[in-house]
Amino acid sequence: YSLYINFLSKIDMSKNNNNEKMNGIYGDEEINLIDLKPADEEVEENVSGEEDDGSINMDFDKLKFIENPVEELSSNRLPQTLSDCVGYMDTLPLLAPNADQSNPQTIVDMINSVAASDESASDESAIAGAVPRKTLHHDAFGAFGHTVRTGCISFYKKFETVYAAPEGRWWIWDPLANWMNGGKNVSLDQDVIRMNDDQVLIIRIIEGNVGLITIQGVHHLLDVGTHVFNSGTVKYFGPKNLANSNYMNHGPYHYVNVPRGKNAKVWALVESVREKALVPRLIKEGEHFIRSTFFKFEGMVNISDEYIGHDSIHILNVVKGRVAKANCDNEPRLFGEGLHIIESPNFSFMGMESISMDNLCISHGTITILQVPRGKIALLWKSNQPCLIDRPGLYEFNSNDVFFKEFVDSSARYIELGAKKGR
User: Fold this and answer.
1) Which range is most confident: 110-119, 315-324, 384-393?
2) Which of 20, 137, 154, 234 is the most exposed place for a label (fewest CB within 10 A)?
3) pLDDT tens-digit map of 230-250
4) What is the distance between the alpha carbons of residues 100 and 83, in angstroms, rounded to a whole number?
């Protein structure tokens, strides 16, 4: 049959049967599509109009199946801090130094103090109230005794109890006490001094670092300064430079430093009225502190990325001239220009597709969008019937029985689609 005659006959049939007519907008003119029957809300077509100069306005903003950003679902709606999470802190709880590096006598006093290794010794009042032990070194006479040089201390012990002597010349009168091997004139210009299997531990933390220790298995963080412990129950794990770290953790303590232009992907425990839940978070630029054994850090992402996914949180950054393709709750969805926030555990990003005259057909699942320019005819199948669209404009379909085949030139002398042929 002649496709042209078929076209006229179908127009005539559509006028007699309203169930087989599909309306569109072409300026102010009502048009009919051959063989395309409305399927409730599954088909929306020809939402473009003709400009005064005769050009066709392909306005994708008017399409029903391309979603625009929702203001209520902006990035400000997402919690981007840890302030409502279990264990949130304004800053890290750092143990203050209990000795003065510039005054070796304070270091010796803490070594020779009973309370120096107590956890509460980090508090200044506790340091001031530390009870000194009776020392066994005394001033030496003449050329006798051991000389401790400036900037050094020397160690001796009695019955495995370690003592320290400051700068000067000293003599030990107790025959059961003796100077330790490797413990004479130990320079204080060191970051760590260990004696007698860490029974005495002197730790110097320089600016920009924190010290990582455990006291009887409990995790603690050391502030800048000199820390002295003599209980034998302290383990030192080294310093950590926060300036060069985006993330640091020590036991339950976590520190996250998010640089400009990035978000951090984390998990944190949130407590509601009746229950607690471990939830995903994308936290913003700045420093964040938390004390929690449930907290997890998964890395950084650029906020300029076209797609950011963190478990049930999904962010689409669609630039002008593109659409994002995704599946949400087992349904295809298209997202237009702007920032989209989606919270769904059943979401998958399928990529971006450009909107241009070089890409006249956008297809995603059951959604099909056609740009029909002047001089082109769109050939497609609807309900297993061959159909064509020859009016310029934008057409969108959301139906599993619509299959686009190709575009052909309207000047073509021969067109074939299935059993239908035309010249």
Assistant:
1) 315-324
2) 20
3) 988 999 999 999 888 899 999
4) 36
Give the whole-angstrom CA distance, residue 2 versus residue 423.
7
Structure tokens, 56: 């066709």
- Tell me how far apart the alpha carbons of residues 339 and 284 are, in angstroms, rounded to a whole number: 16
In which residue are the tokens 């393709």 written?
A: 325
CB atoms inside a 10 Å sphere around CB 4:
11
* Six token digits for residue 76: 């400000």
Smallest CA-to-CA distance from 381 within 367, 364, 400, 396 is with 400
DSSP code of residue 60: G
pLDDT in tens, 297-332: 999 999 999 999 999 999 999 999 899 999 999 999
Percent of the chain with pLDDT over 70: 80
Specify whether the CB–CB gap between 288 and 249 falls below 8 A: no
Q: Rounded to whole angstroms, what are the CA distances from 358 to 26, 51, 56, 371?
A: 22, 21, 16, 10
Cα-based angle 339, 342, 348 (whole degrees, multiple of 5): 105
- DSSP track, 369-412: EEEE-TTEEEEEEETTEEEEE-S-EEEEEE-TTEEEEEEEETT-
In a 13 Å sphere around the CA of 405, the CA atoms on its Cβ side amount to 17
Region 19-40 average pLDDT: 35
- The Cα 201–Cα 127 span in angstroms is 16
Which ranges of 87-184 would DSSP assign to H, the alpha helix? 104-111, 124-128
| Residue 54: DSSP 8-state | S
CB of 378 closer than 8 Å to CB of 397: no
